[in-house]
Design a protein that fits this description.
The chain has a 4-stranded antiparallel beta sheet. It is an alpha+beta fold and about 70 residues long. A hairpin with a 4-residue loop joins strand 2 and strand 3 (about 35-40). About 10% of the residues are buried. It is built from 1 helix and 4 strands. The chain has one domain. The chain starts with 11 loop residues before the first strand and ends in a 6-residue tail after the last helix.
Length: about 70
C-alpha cells in the first residue's frame, strides 16, 4: 500500500534492530500509526515509505526470519 493516504508527519521512526551501524541496510519503522506499520530507508528520510497493515506485519517478519521469502 502506498503511504499517500496516511499522514506520517507525526510518526516516530526508529531504526530496525537488523540495521547495521555503518550506514548500510538502514531500515526504519514507525511506531504509533494505528492499524499500520510504515517502513522506510533511513538514508532517504523524506523519500517514500512502504505501509504494511498491522495484521500482516507479524507474519511478514516471521517469514523473513524463517527464510521463506526470496532475498
Amino acid at each position: 500500500m502506498a503511504s499517500s493516504g496516511i499522514d506520517l508527519s507525526a510518526a516516530t521512526w526508529r531504526k530496525s534492530s537488523y540495521s547495521n551501524g555503518t550506514g548500510g541496510d538502514c531500515v526504519e519503522v514507525a511506531d504509533g500509526v494505528a492499524g499500520f506499520v510504515p517502513v522506510r530507508d533511513s538514508k532517504r528520510p523524506h523519500g517514500p515509505a512502504v505501509v504494511v497493515a498491522a495484521g500482516a506485519w507479524g507474519p511478514f517478519v516471521r517469514a523473513l526470519k524463517a527464510g521463506e521469502l526470496p532475498g
